[in-house]
Design a protein that fits this description.
The chain has 9 helices and 8 strands. It has about 325 residues and is of the alpha/beta class. The N terminus is likely disordered.
């Protein structure tokens, strides 16, 4: 069912000189709020551990909130996996958020979340099937977190190959995700200078998609992230794009560490508008960044109730 966009959002679109792919697509207006994934890692943990004293708090503060579903090599038949997720959200009249996370050499410099498709050819086949799975169902897609920021340990040839794969991905999402808003990841506020990131986004095909994402899996405050997003926008060559901010764990801001630091807190839940086009929980709160910090011994992507409770309490 198509719905009317919030007035503040439509006004922002009317006044902003932005370059938008598939301007007619409107997944926000087609749905009645963001999708709560019933099979998220926190939700699955709560169902399996109902007698645990922490379960009710994790259910109320995390598992019951809208958040992204991450897709990679673990997802099996990617077309079927994506289709199943967006069909379920569509049946509930809600807007799902998906993360495509399978670029070859993923997390090349950080190492904790390494992996990805084995070859550029395998990646192109994977992302093509991912985009096909979206079809005409409304969706938001975050494309390859860290992939344009994580260049420090890569040579020029590897960077060019990665940029080409990402540009191919943006074209697939543009052509096949008919009611999808896709956002190419732009790192975070203190990783890559805004002008440098703007150049990388342009080279990687950001013109093909809705915009870019800021602060995925990091902790910088929403105002700082918005400032960075606006600086990137100002540096784009002759056009502007919209951006989204990951607010899943930025309630207390950053202490300068990215890998399961203590003292972090849940941020604002998903919403349309504000200092960005969307505020969304991209990183699943409670999922470890790797075996480090307060998540020592917990592999990247695995849910930890101990981490989750500390995010709820801000400790």
């Amino acid at each position: 069912m198509r719905r009317i966009l919030p007035a503040v959002f439509t006004a922002a679109l009317a006044l902003s000189p932005i370059h938008i792919a598939h301007a007619a697509a409107d997944p926000v207006g087609m749905t009645s709020g963001f999708y709560v994934d019933p099979n998220s890692n926190p939700a699955n943990w709560v169902r399996a551990n109902g007698s645990d004293a922490r379960a009710s708090r994790i259910q109320a503060s995390i598992a019951s909130k809208p958040m992204a579903r991450w897709f990679g090599s673990w997802s099996g038949d990617i077309r079927a996996a994506v289709s199943s997720f967006v069909v379920a959200a569509d049946a509930a009249d809600k807007l799902p958020v998906l993360v495509a996370y399978n670029i070859p050499g993923r997390d090349a410099c950080g190492g904790h979340s390494g992996g990805g498709a084995g070859t550029p050819e395998a990646y192109r086949a994977w992302i093509s099937a991912f985009a096909t799975g979206l079809g005409n169902r409304p969706a938001v897609v975050i494309l390859e977190p860290d992939s344009l920021a994580d260049f420090n340990c890569m040579d020029a040839g590897a960077i060019a190959t990665r940029t080409g794969m990402i540009k191919y991905a943006t074209g697939q999402l543009r052509d096949k995700g008919l009611n999808t808003w896709a956002y190419l990841d732009a790192g975070n506020a203190r990783w890559v200078p805004a002008a440098t990131m703007a150049s990388r986004l342009d080279s990687a095909g950001v013109r093909n998609v809705r915009g870019y994402s800021i602060n995925v899996s990091n902790y910088y405050t929403t105002p700082e992230s918005a400032d960075y997003g606006n600086a990137v926008n100002a540096a784009l060559p002759g056009y502007r794009k919209t951006f989204v901010i990951d607010t899943s764990r930025n309630g207390n801001g950053s202490n300068g560490d990215w890998c399961n630091p203590p003292g972090r807190k849940l941020g604002s839940t998903a919403q349309v508008g504000g200092p960005a086009e969307l505020l969304v929980w991209v990183k699943v709160p409670g999922d470890s960044d790797g075996s480090c910090g307060i998540g020592a011994g917990v592999p990247a992507g695995q849910f930890s109730p101990a981490i989750a409770i500390r995010l709820i309490d801000g400790t």
